Amino acid sequence: MSDTHSHSGAPRGFETTAIHAGNTADPVTGAVVPPIYQVSTYKQDGVGGLRGGYEYSRSANPTRTALEENLAALEGGRRGLAFASGLAAEDCLLRTLLSPGDHVVIPNDAYGGTFRLFAKVVSRWGVEWSVADTSDVASVRAALTPKTKAVWVETPSNPLLGITDIAAVAQVAREAGARLVVDNTFASPYLQQPLALGADVVVHSMTKYMGGHSDVVGGALVVNDQALADDLAYHQNAMGAVAGPFDSWLVLRGIKTLPVRMDRHSENAGRVAEMLTRHPRVTKVLYPGLSEHPGHEIAAKQMRAFGGMVSFQVEGGEEAAVEVCNRAQLFTLGESLGGVESLIEHPGRMTHASVAGSALEVPADLVRLSVGIESADDLLADLQQALGTK
Known about the structure:
Helices cover about 35% and strands about 15% of the residues. It has 13 helices and 14 strands. It has helices at about 15-20, 60-75, 85-95, 110-120, 135-145, 165-175, 190, 225-240, 245-255, 260-280, 295-300, 315-325, 375-385; strands spanning about 5, 10, 80-85, 105, 130, 150-155, 180-185, 200-205, 220-225, 280-285, 310-315, 330-335, 345, 365-370. The chain has a seven-stranded mixed sheet, sandwiched between helices. β1 and β2 form a beta hairpin. α2 runs parallel beside α9, α3 crosses α8 and α12 packs across α13 (about 375-385).
């Protein structure tokens, strides 16, 4: 992981940047935490004279500005933009980049909401899309057309934990004149920085690891290209799905502990994955930290650690997988991920129901875990009782 830089140009560690970037002390009171500017409009210094660049909180709000500065610093980008949700960020990006007749390559393993956005919404504007296995560079290259304007990647992917070589796919996309978009939600910028590997746009659902406490919904885009940044900012204001001040404040607070949380998430997930590989009722474990994972070497190259998400398949099919979810006690049955508490879900019936019958359909016997930061021994015991004995 590369160091980030302060305004003075001196390199700073990620942990320092997470706490300090955008978080300047309040000039009036000296408060060390940026205030929640719960305000819609601002007194102007004469007609057209904006005080500090603020006029209306859809266009800009000081609390959101602090978060956006922090996001850009963490991802090593020129500009960060904060939205009301991850899908709001994706929607703004697609309507900024694409016109009717354009084409996008999407992964064969992706968040169900992203697939729904392409299949049910974007396609109505005359935008075409096709599916590729983004872990296979040749598959991405074969899916490109003269009309391809973007290649969309999730790594690690949701829910099958596939790994894409960001640098390799970035080169393929660049040669085709397309932009590479990387959804970095599962990794967070602490574990992976796609812009440094050649990506053009980083997408986050800040609801997950960035917020980290299951108490806020938000989304983000981070880019390096100034012209694209300006275009995205224009559309963000024109379309209006911005992060509110309190939500921005909550994410800023969450980010301060992102590094220590991700270390524990990764440590706990590694122990969970190892236990599952030995369990007689588990037929397959999907975790990039396992040496047998097909993307392990690439993940080790482009990630600091392997994250907190683990998926596995169980013998007995769909009903057995659902029963494991229902029997869990410490793992809460629920959608979403990335909070300090552990969650368990059945993707086929829950987060990925929208991909049923498509090329992105997930295995019916699949269980997905968001491994939290509790005592690992307690998490292992809960999964063992939920799985039972063979």
